[in-house]
Amino acid sequence: MSVIEFSHVSLAMPRTKRRQGSGRKHRLRRFAGETSRTMVPVLDDVSFTVNKGDSVAIVSGKPLLRTSVIRLAVGTLIPDSGAVTRTERVVPMIGIARAMGASFTIRQNAYLVGGLLGMSPAELTEKLPSIIEFADLGNYLDRHLRGTPTSTRQRLAWSIAMAVDADVYAIDQTLVVGELEFRQKCWSAVDTLRENGATFLVSSDGAKQYRRFCNRGLYFEQGALIADTTVPKALALAREARREPRGE
Amino acid sequence: MLVLRDLQNQYTKFRLGYLWSLLEPLGMSLVLWLVFSVLLGERALGLSPYLLFLSVAILPWWWFTKSVNASTKIFRRARGELAFSALPPQIWVMRTVLSTSVEFIFSLPVIVLAIVLTRDLPGIYILFFPVAILLQFLLLYGIGLLVSSLSVVIPDLARVVKIIMRAMFYLSPILYSISNIPQNLQTIAAINPLVGILGLYRIGWWPEEHTSVVALVISLSVAAALFIAGIYTFHRLKPRLLKEAK
Question: Interface pTM (ipTM) of the complex?
Answer without folding.
Answer: 0.70
